[in-house]
Amino acid sequence: MVDMKQLQALFGGTFDPVHYGHLKPVEALANLIGLSKVTIMPNNVPPHRPQPEANSQQRKTMVELAIADKPLFTLDERELMRNEPSYSADTLQAWRQESGEKAPLAFIIGQDSLLTFHSWHRYDTILDNCHLIVCRRPGYALTMSEEAHQRWLDAHLTTRVEDLHTLPAGKIYLAETPWFDISATQIRQRLAHDEPCDDLLPAAVLEYIHQQGLYR
Ligand code: ATP
């Protein structure tokens, strides 16, 4: 009997702002594979990349508002509160050290992130520390653009949910989550043009954005 309570999942991102394209696929994923908790960890963006428009405190508050009525999610502020940039590889390594060798851990990403995964800082260490669970995202290829990357993907793929719950790390699972054609970029652009965004993110987050005068 597989213990479905063991698998811990982390969901990182910039969340500038958090939206339904983040929340809904992960809620569906939790039902599909049996996840009882997902930790959302907003990141600090490295200085050489475009900076978020909302500051750390605002991104944190938006996540708090978005998950207030969703017990599946918790917020981890550790990357946000750090002054230096955070790399997923380092965070996942620290998480492994805290959790012990045997705990099944997973990092949730969208399909777009899988396609650029090989450009991430120390990407090759990530599967040593956790599984990757990939949510579908419309508009992104389902296969890797380079043959070597596709071979890497094929070598790690699993279709067995039990693998995620019983093995500590090392598998990639392509989850059949519903597609949501929503991005933070699109929301920022719509808000800058005074266009409605009610279907794209929770009302409490939208209210906060207006109250703070963000993305204008
Ligand atoms: P931006 O438009 O500013 O680049 P984003 O909407 O892609 O932002 P991020 O905070 O960069 O949001 O994404 C965090 C994680 O959520 C990433 O792994 C990304 O792939 C995933 N994600 C974001 N939007 C979706 C979506 N609509 N469907 C599935 N996954 C998504």
Description of the molecule:
This is Probable nicotinate-nucleotide adenylyltransferase. Belongs to the NadD family. Pfam families: CTP_transf_like. The structure is a single chain. The longest helix is centred in the first third of the chain and has 14 residues. This protein has one domain: Rossmann fold. The termini are far apart. It is globular. It is built from nine helices and six strands. β1, α1 and β2 form a beta-alpha-beta unit. Helix content is 38%, strand content 13%. A six-stranded parallel sheet has the order 3-2-1-4-5-6, with helices on both faces. The chain is α/β, with parallel strands linked by helices.
How do the helices and strands follow one another from N- to C-terminus? EHEHEHEHHEHHEHH
Amino-to-carboxy terminus distance = 53 Å
CA radius of gyration is 17 Å
CATH topology call: Rossmann fold
What is the level 1 CATH name?
Alpha Beta
The 3D shape can be described as globular
- Which range does the strand content fall in? 5-15%
Q: Average pLDDT, to the nearest integer?
A: 95
Q: Helix proportion of residues, in percent? A: 25-40%
Please mark out the parts with pLDDT under 50 across 5 or more consecutive residues, or reply none: none
Task: Compute the number of helices.
Answer: 9
